Inverse folding.
């Protein structure tokens, strides 16, 4: 990949800097933040710009307002939180484009920060709209992308806006860190053994990742919903287990992956917890993954699989995990995912392994059990992480280096 410039390569003194962050953080019904990881990770980038005596204009989306100005999805609630974290007053404006917005930006003094209203209050943000990009570009002299978690989206502020800044654009420290750690896996130069664990339900987003990882991983563990298409193609009976995207999967890709596994590095569950219906109160039993009866559904990995996978994790020195091992949102089927979370945390702290975890459910499992602080790096992006692992880049990164 071409060398990509970061905020460390520039001095932002007296420059109006459009900083694209992702503050689309989960909140409760009282607008209290449940997880502020994305905010925390972008603080160093903000501090770098204001320490240069630059002027920061924060732009982000929040929720899915679909082009409507919804009070419930306003970013105003972030002002107090950001002011506290940065120990400075954060200004706020209730729009992100227009004459009044430009006026507010032009009034900024060196070292000041202005948070603009939700980008997605305009449907043009999600439509790659050139006119919307031009209106946003009027607000800044520099563009910085520190929103890794949406860097795979073809959205105006990610893909089009940076192109209007010529050489006055770069990535922030959050983006830099994500790229650094993901490249560590893609290079295959991490400490051996290298173990990759992939779960979840959407196989189409992980097929290419599996293809890339099979060349240098020592262990490639495939669990959760994405394991069933493989088991089915290998001749197993998977009952009514949910196989998402089954009609759109190119089965030749799965055959190709299985044929490439000449080192026998791919490990599937050998037993699973099956249920007679898709809910937390369903009847359950343990079953061989190749012999799931009709009308039964595989919803978690079984005890033997947990033991086998945890044994692999224990002896691993470099670990990447994305995706749960079962239907994690149901307590009855969360044991497999929680066990994996515990094993990775333990290997990180006791064996000094390097661990990288991405994806909402995987990180939620870690946080639920209090293991999140014991992981080497928590990626801020699930889909963005997978996109990077597939293509060794993303739309947001390409728009910076063009």
């Amino acid at each position: 990949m071409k060398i990509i410039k970061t905020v460390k390569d520039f001095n932002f003194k007296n420059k109006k800097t459009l900083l694209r962050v992702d503050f689309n953080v989960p909140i409760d019904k009282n607008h209290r933040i449940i997880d502020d990881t994305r905010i925390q990770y972008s603080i160093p980038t903000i501090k770098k710009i204001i320490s240069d005596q630059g002027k920061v204009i924060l732009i982000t989306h929040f929720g899915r307002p679909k082009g409507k100005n919804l009070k419930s999805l306003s970013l105003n609630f972030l002002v107090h939180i950001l002011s506290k974290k940065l120990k400075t007053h954060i200004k706020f404006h209730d729009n992100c484009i227009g004459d009044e917005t430009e006026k507010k930006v032009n009034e900024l003094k060196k070292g000041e920060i202005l948070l603009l209203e939700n980008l997605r209050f305009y449907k043009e943000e999600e439509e790659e709209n050139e006119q919307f990009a031009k209106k946003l570009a009027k607000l800044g002299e520099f563009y910085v992308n520190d929103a890794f978690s949406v860097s795979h989206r073809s959205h105006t502020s990610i893909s089009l806006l940076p192109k209007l800044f010529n050489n006055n654009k770069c990535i922030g420290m959050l983006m830099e860190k994500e790229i650094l750690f993901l490249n560590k896996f893609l290079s295959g130069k991490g400490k051996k053994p290298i173990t990759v664990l992939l779960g979840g339900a959407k196989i189409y987003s992980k097929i290419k990742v599996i293809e890339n990882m099979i060349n240098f991983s020592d262990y490639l563990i495939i669990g959760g919903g994405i394991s069933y298409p493989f088991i089915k193609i290998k001749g197993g009976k998977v009952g009514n287990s949910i196989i998402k995207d089954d009609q759109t999967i190119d089965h030749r890709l799965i055959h190709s992956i299985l044929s490439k596994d000449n080192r026998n590095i791919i490990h599937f569950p050998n037993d699973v917890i099956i249920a007679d219906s898709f809910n937390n109160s369903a009847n359950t039993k343990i079953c061989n993954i190749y012999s799931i009866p009709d009308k039964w559904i595989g919803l978690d990995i079984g005890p033997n699989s947990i033991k086998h996978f945890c044994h692999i994790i224990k002896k691993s020195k470099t670990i990447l995990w994305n995706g749960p091992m079962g239907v994690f949102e149901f307590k009855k089927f969360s044991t497999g995912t929680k066990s994996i979370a515990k094993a990775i945390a333990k290997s990180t702290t006791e064996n000094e392994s390097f661990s990288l975890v991405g994806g909402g459910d995987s990180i939620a499992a870690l946080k639920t059990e209090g293991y999140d602080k014991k992981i080497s790096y928590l990626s801020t992006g699930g889909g963005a992480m997978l996109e990077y692992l597939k293509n060794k880049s993303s739309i947001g990164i390409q728009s910076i280096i063009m």
Notes: The two ends are 12 Å apart (CA to CA). The chain has two domains: 7-173+394-401, 188-370.
